[in-house]
Amino acid sequence: MNYPIEQIRADFPILAEKIRNKPLVYLDNAATCQKPQAVIDSIVDCYSHSYANIHRGVHTLSIRATDQFEAARDKVKTFINANSDKEIIFVRGATEAINLVAQTYGKTNVQAGDEILITAMEHHANIVPWQMLCEQTGAVLKVIPMNTQGELIAGEFEKLLSDKTKLVAITQMSNALGTINPVKAMIATAHAKNIPVLVDGAQAIPHITIDVQDLDCDFYVFSGHKLYAPAGVGVLYGKQALLEAMPPYQGGGDMIRTVTFEKSTYAGLPHKFEAGTPAIADVIGLGAAIDYLTAIGMEAIAAHEHELLIYATEQALQIKGLRIIGEAEHKGAILSFVLDKIHPHDIGTMLDSLGIAVRAGHHCAMPVMDFYHVPATARASFAMYNTKAEVDVLMKGIRDLIAMFG
Prior knowledge:
Radius of gyration: 22 Å
Number of strands: 17
CATH architecture of the largest domain: 3-Layer(aba) Sandwich
CATH class of the largest domain: Alpha Beta
Shape: globular
Strand content: 15-25%
Largest sheet: 7 strands, mixed
């Protein structure tokens, strides 16, 4: 069956936009993805026909909204193959999910002299919360190094694991390089020493079929907005036994069982970690995004994006003065690059004049930029709706830019 690219593109109304009187070529998907009409419609439908606060109401709208909200939780459970919907915690995004684990599991299990292990290619969201925890507890942050291809040095990972290691937190796919890490093997290595593992799946989940039971990760986090869903909603998956042992992250409504002025008791999973009114319509939108992706098929999407990456890489390698940053053997659909004598911010600005949206900067991965001795990169990141014709537009824009700068 042929990949239905024209139908998919028609499902995303923003792709019909003109930027500076030119067709939009949206290649900033690693920062955030655009939304299909099905997701937009689900949000409009919620606010038009079924919006009310959830869980506590006995009136029709509250029951309707609650059913749709919890149906989205079940869709997430199925999408990542969790064992139970109790293991699916709705949060604001991957960043909040990591902070939740750091300040609950981390504070409970990490002490002075202990070690937390991350990789050299982490997003700031998987660095700073652990630095904060180390400052609070006296623990030490250790970093798994990488090579110039942008791949982790496997032997170094095993050397860094010790009796002091209390948690490993690793990205499945680098947002700055596109590297796809061998997280399943790394989890098995850590588990052999009884060390739990958190996987940051924010970049991976739109591109790769995720099975948390097969990975055997202890925690998995992702954001909705990179999965064609609304911003402001994300997911923390955790193994049920771990979540049950962790203290609440925030106090408030819906996470309690009883409250007196002397003492409060807490609700069971997943509600223990979902204080206050959640992003109801956005969670429903996340469910709609999962339905949309499932109908197309994650394997078909992955194959299409890989084809785009191969095509773009081949084209980029033919451009004199262009250097690709991150050339791992296993990569997602991200092409980070620099041009001789042209700052990435100028690349981004000039490409925008042609209607091409790329990201220019450090991509919330400043240690990665330091490793490659560059201030920033330009990053083209591809999604299910991008085409080879758009790659051609990008490459022509880059060539024109080089000619302009002489």
